[in-house]
Design a protein that fits this description.
about 40% helix, alpha/beta, single chain, 30 helices, nine-stranded mixed beta sheet, eight-stranded mixed beta sheet, globular, about 15% strand, 29 strands, about 900 residues
Length: about 900
């Protein structure tokens, strides 16, 4: 079966069903057996790695192809076999990894090149998308090519460093590093070592031990005369970096400087690596030490890995000029990785337009009363909130369903991240343990009874209610079958704290490789930034970090969920959901920017400037600097961007004024001779209408007079007007969005044009002068999907959609693609019936508000972006979104005031 012959999942299913009816089979296959065959074939032949896009600096000379014939890729072949034959990676994914790691290695520089040289690069992936597999693949190939000294900086946390070392042992060293550092000559072979034991890398660190000079000296291995490559997996820590630098220099025979090629990979490069000092000549401690570590050799390459295009290295510098001065800036290359097709990412949790009940996210309404975001170390917690008990029920019910699906021996995890204080984490873990034991007893006594009898018990009824609420409509398994499997699901639940106090070995999935670990992990920052929970299905998350990158990295719920994606649930506060959704959309735009820049031959510095000039960087920077700044000034470009009034004024004369100004603009357009068409040729009486070729003066007058709260920094009228003027637009399209299903009482008649009010759930944010309403409650969006196609011809729309379908299949088309072909900017007017939440639970109040958005066209060939100055009011931002959760590198016990 070849890749070219299988084009869709339907074809796989049809083929298997036809083969199942052949008389050659000894017995008739059951439905479960047929489904298992289909699932395996889909995994092997349909899952593929998307294309990687590369932008490079000047002067690179490709070298790998010229040396390929003389390189023995023994380390890579061994790792390739591990991925495919032992870890079950789809062949197409491994093939893609092979190609991408070749590209990164080539850009990293030829280790055999003599003289003095440095290389700097950045790989932009997705959270939990497999970047560890990517850089381990790179490490293996770098070892084959001749890099003798490989240093992997594995974040700030001991647990993460230990877990990363475990993966290096499995994927590169091939032996138990704890035993190797214990001078055990018969150290256990594992991972790649089970495939080929004729060679092994030298490990200077282990799962239990970070780098120390005494242990390194005790190995009696000369760095200058290595026969096999050496690997150091270290924590991003001042003393460890200092000790390694001193030790390397002490081993040099050339006066403090080595000449062997060094490859330094900085995992979680956003965190603490870049220079945040205002004086470029005085870099901060970690940044300075990484520079010194690289300078330990005359030949060195630095490659940072990050999960976000809004990388701190682009966002944090005070101005564009400072971007050029950062020593670790990826001046030589930036590679954007696309996640495999079976990746469950931000779009699945935050950008999915499915109806409530089918979404993977569950919004928390009772959490703040139970445990406020800002709480003290000695906060009293005597019980669990209903939502956390519901989440625990989801964990048990989903495990029962996985058992029915033949995944009972697979790891199954739940994450609970509610506080950075280890004492609070311990109390929560204790209460969860009590709850799971109580539930397990009830299940043991009643799981064999009929449902009618079993459900008389309140705990069994609560499990049934959880199934009805979260799974009944979206999964095929029946309650009777689930009830019978609940005993196995609940009998072996472990509740474990994962924090600095618990130590690195507390969560060891290797011990349960055969039976699968069934675990609820309770922690804080130690569960963030790269730490992987195997089989993570349920997440309960209360944190409200100010730092965008920290919030994103806390998203341990992303990853691969083959066979149980429909069971995953994320319990999250509305504010955090809102922020994730906005950043997920903005990040998708910037990832697409890498591909566009690759086509146009642009350089890494151009991408860095594009990130800084993205409207989203205003909010990212405002959030990052919420504690330390009053306002943020940033130059922003709006080509191919969408800006919307996702916040509107909550009260006062401005509410009526905005409504009247919107009505007045529509009335002028209706009474003019401007041509109009319905959106997507909709024939209904209340169809959305597009007015074409509206003079720019009319639009900018409207924008200038519409009043918005200062928490909408990207919607500030002066820079928008300045930008439109500099781009020289003459005409706009204007969409009057309408709800075709609106009842007559919610239908406007403006000059004979019928406009149905769009109903939106709204949330009040802030107080006093900064009070605002969030238009779509928990999403920073106003326009509905597809509305940005307004103003395009049918042929333009079809061309965009055909291109997308050819690459992505049935996935929803992102509206940003319409901006690339748009010729005129689009103003979208929205008349809203907003259902505003009241203090009494479940109560809402109907209010009418106007809102608008602007979709700007991309740049024409040869056109230069026109950047305009924005100022973001950080004080207003803080009042609207609340005080942040305190930050720390590790879980600690300092009061969270």
């Amino acid at each position: 079966m070849s890749k070219s012959n299988i084009k869709s999942r339907d074809e796989v299913r049809d083929l298997v069903l036809r083969l199942a009816t052949l008389p050659l089979l000894p017995e008739t296959l059951s439905k479960d057996q047929i489904d298992a065959v289909i699932e395996q074939l889909e995994h092997d032949f349909m899952v593929r790695l998307g294309p990687a896009h590369t932008i490079t600096g000047r002067g690179h000379k490709p070298w790998l192809d010229g040396r390929r014939h003389e390189i023995n890729f023994k380390y890579w072949r061994r790792y390739n076999d591990l991925l495919r034959l032992h870890l079950g990676f789809p062949k197409l994914v491994v093939d893609g990894l092979d190609e991408i790691s070749d590209r990164i290695l080539d850009l990293a520089g030829d280790p055999n090149e003599e003289g003095t040289w440095t290389r700097r690069g950045l790989v932009v992936g997705h959270v939990q998308s497999g970047k560890t597999a990517n850089y381990i693949g790179l490490i293996n190939k770098a070892a084959d090519a001749g890099y003798k000294l490989i240093i992997l900086i594995a974040g700030l946390h001991t647990n993460l460093r230990s877990q990363t070392q475990e993966r290096i042992d499995e994927g590169f060293v091939g032996r138990d590093s704890d035993q190797l550092l214990g001078r055990n000559s018969n150290a256990t072979w594992l991972g790649v070592g089970d495939i080929d034991q004729s060679f092994s890398a030298v490990a200077f660190t282990s799962r239990a031990y970070d780098f120390t000079k005494p242990r390194a000296d005790g190995l009696n291995i000369s760095i200058g005369s290595l026969s096999q490559p050496a690997i150091f997996v270290i924590k991003k820590n001042k003393s460890i970096l200092t000790n390694l630098i001193d030790w390397l220099r002490s081993t040099s025979s050339a006066g403090d400087v080595l000449t062997i090629p060094i490859l330094l990979i900085d995992d979680e490069a956003d965190n603490a690596s870049i220079n945040t000092s205002k004086d470029p000549s005085l870099p901060n401690t970690i940044n300075s030490l990484i520079r010194k570590l690289l300078a330990s050799s005359t030949r060195n390459t630095y490659i940072g890995y990050t999960a976000t295009p809004f990388a701190n290295i682009f966002v944090d510098p005070e101005n564009d000029d400072e971007l050029h001065k950062e020593d670790l800036f990826p001046r030589d290359f930036i590679i954007g990785l696309d996640a495999p097709s079976n990746y469950v990412g931000a779009s699945d949790y935050f950008l999915d337009d499915r109806e409530t009940g089918q979404n993977l996210s569950v919004l928390l309404e009772d959490a703040e009363e139970w445990l406020p975001v800002k709480h003290k170390i000695d906060v009293q917690i005597d019980s669990l909130p209903e939502s956390l008990e519901d989440a625990i029920n989801c964990f048990l019910v989903s495990k029962a369903i996985r058992i029915l699906r033949g995944q009972g021996a697979k790891h199954h995890s739940m994450l609970v991240n509610v506080s950075r204080f280890t004492g609070v984490q311990g109390r929560v873990a204790s209460l969860i343990s009590e709850r799971t034991q109580t539930v397990a007893v009830a299940i043991e006594n009643r799981h064999r009874l009929s449902a009618a009898v079993a459900l008389r018990d309140p705990i069994m009824m609560s499990l049934h209610d959880t199934w009805l609420k979260h799974y009944e409509s979206s999964t095929p398994e029946s309650w009777d079958d689930i009830q019978r499997s609940l005993y196995q699901a609940s009998a072996s639940v472990h509740v474990i704290e994962v924090n600095a106090r618990s130590g690195p070995g507390v969560l060891d999935y290797r011990k349960y490789a055969d039976s699968g670990l069934n675990v609820i992990a309770v922690g804080g920052n130690s569960l963030s930034r790269g730490f992987t929970l195997e089989g993570l299905t349920i997440s309960y998350f209360l944190r409200n970090t100010q730092m965008y990158d920290t919030l994103l990295q806390m998203g341990r719920w992303f990853g691969y969920r083959d066979g149980y994606k429909d069971l995953c649930r994320l319990f999250i506060k509305p504010d955090a959901f809102d922020w994730y959704a906005y950043i997920a959309s903005a990040s998708d735009e910037l990832r697409a920017e890498i591909a566009k820049m690759e086509r146009y031959g642009l350089r890494p510095i151009d991408f860095g400037l594009a990130v800084r000039s993205h409207p989203g960087s205003l909010l990212v920077t405002a959030r990052n600097k919420m504690r330390t700044a009053r306002e943020i000034v940033r130059k922003v470009g709006l080509a191919a961007r969408l800006v919307e009034s996702s916040l509107v004024v909550a009260r006062g004369d401005a509410v009526d004024d905005n409504w009247q100004r919107s009505e007045a603009l529509v009335k002028r357009l209706v009474n003019s001779d401007i041509s109009r068409v319905t959106l997507r040729e909709d024939p209904s009486l209340k169809a959305s209408v597009v007015f074409q070729n509206v003079a720019q003066e009319q639009v900018l007058e409207f924008v200038g007079r519409f009043v918005l709260p200062s928490g909408n920094p990207e919607m500030a009228a002066p820079p928008i007007i300045d930008y439109a003027t500099k781009r020289g637009f003459e005409f706009w399209d204007v969409l009057v969005a309408s709800n075709t299903r609106a009842v007559d009482a919610n239908t406007l008649d403006i000059g004979g044009l019928k406009i149905g009010l769009q109903t939106r759930a709204a949330t009040l944010r802030g107080t006093g002068a900064h009070a605002a309403l969030s238009v779509s409650k928990n999403k920073r969006r106003v326009a509905s999907r597809g509305q940005e196609a307004a103003g395009l011809t049918a042929s333009q729309r079809k061309a965009v959609e055909a291109t997308w379908r050819a690459e992505k299949g049935d996935a929803s088309i992102p509206d940003r693609l319409y901006r690339d072909v748009r010729e005129r900017p689009l103003l979208m007017l929205h008349f809203l019936d907003m259902q505003v939440e009241q203090s009494e639970p479940g109560k809402t109040k109907s209010e009418r508000h106007a809102a608008y958005g602007i979709s700007f066209p991309g740049l024409k060939e040869g056109e230069v972006e026109q950047k305009v100055v924005y100022t973001a009011n950080v004080i207003a931002f803080r009042e609207l979104y609340g005080d942040p959760d305190a930050e720390g590198d590790d879980d600690d016990d300092e009061s969270q005031d």
